[in-house]
Amino acid sequence: MKVRLVDIAHARSGDKGDTANVGVIALRREWYDLIARELTEQRVTDHFRGVITGDVKRFELPNLGALNFLLHGALDGGGTLSLKTDAQGKVFSTALLRMTLDVPDAEARALALPAAS
Amino acid sequence: MKQVVRVAAGQGFWGDWLEAPRRQVEGGPVDYLMLDYLAEVTMSILQKQKERDPTMGYARDFLGAMESVLTAVVERGVKVIANAGGVNPVSCADAVRELAKAKGVGGKVKIGVVTGDDLLPRIDDLISRGHALANMDTGEPLSIVRDRVLSANAYIGSTPIVEALARGAQVVVTGRSTDTALTMAPLRHEFGWAADDWDKLAAGIIAGHIIECGAQCSGGNCLIDWQNIPDLANVGYPIVNANPDGTFEISKHPGTGGRISVPSVTEQLVYEMGDPNAYITPDVVADFTTIKLESAGPDRVRVFGIAGRPSTDKLKVSIAYRAGFKAVGTLVYSWPDALPKAELADRVLRERLDRLGLRFDKVMTEFVGASATHGPLAGAPNGDMPEVQLRFGVRGEDRAAVERFTREIAPLVLNGPPSVTGFAGGRPKVEEIVAYWPALIDKTEVMTAVEVIS
Fold first, then answer.
1. φ, ψ dihedrals at B179, nearest 5°
2. In order of start, what are the domains of chain B with their CATH numbers?
3. Is the Cβ pair B272, A11 closer than 8 Å?
4. pTM listed for this prediction
């Protein structure tokens, strides 16, 4: 079943120099394991291909039901150097939430995941 | 010893809501008002102001905030802690003293001033003694931009603020204190936490992180359930209610809008996060993977379980340097075919800049309404868009080239693609870029000082 990340998680992003961080938080604690399994460093790297110039680093915060991603080379130099509208990486959060996940039907049913329409 | 100490956040950055400090002091009982004014490049802006006038160089908004709360904080015994001092904490404190006199409370307010973070006068000495002040992102030594450095400040921790409070200061003004130290210091002062009580210090830092961006933990910029967050016009800024054991609750004043919930606090916890296992501050290394949150009633979240580790022997240094010039211009194209018109204007503009022989380090085009924020992730644009904004920016070392670019936007209104508007703002402004250079310095090189004036 196709599941939109935006339907099962919320997020906030910010900046540090030329790096944007995106914290992704499961909307329900029981969805965290699935999100942690699906949102690998590789998957997020692929998602942002052509958008960022550096690599992606992932950290886990199971205590908060959250993952933290550092997206390097995301902000055209960052801060005052950047010519981007989103020079401070404020909406990389929702850019990540555009991702769609493929979840086995049985698991999706067991977790009561909302299906992508 | 107090069993609960209440620290209220009244300003999340320089430019935050002018109403917030007064609302925090008058909206209910609090013990401390914490005001954070400094972002990464703020120090360099203040340094430029100080060069023009040696009595300037601090966040002038702070005087407006003090004007709005001074009488009330004196009456209620609320203490104020702010990093509004910028590159001139002494002049900032003098200005507060004058304000107190003018308000008739001059004899009642002791003002603490924390100095010692300013490394600008010592840069050459530090470099000559082998401190490379290498850029933490690129590894390059500071010497390559030395002649362009505008400001250099060490991020200092809670210790000098604790000292100022111990000496009776009711208002403490600092330079480049860390944002989190402004909240943690009063907790150390009130509860007598030792400088190596790592778990409690980490708890104080995390309390500071949660409230340092003001309403961003109490319903502002909150994605989850944003449609239903009540009364944002009347949003309540957050308050830390701290206990001696290092646990604390986040709340806001009764009758205010916004929302404090486990998800709203979690969004703020992950904001600007690096490695959550090691949130490094001058006081302690806090471990965000130990934080536990639970609801403690309506608009109230309990935070507990926090662990910390010894701090490192380094301080981070915030250095600002001149890094060329930039300008950004915009035009708006309307239906029909708004995006193709904007795309044609972009090609025309690029060809004209080429023919003029202008060279830039970077030229960037964005189509606001189609792809400016999410780029290719936004997918194919809707063909029937009512309008698209062409946003065109250049960056380079040559001011004259950037200046010449700013003259090429307006002509497109008459000699480019049709259905164009939105140029009333006039020619784009050339901005000098002041860039950020993060570095590390040995703690032993930075000596802070505290003065208490009345």
1. -60, -40
2. 5-117+155-312 (no CATH), 322-436 (3.30.70.2750)
3. no
4. 0.96
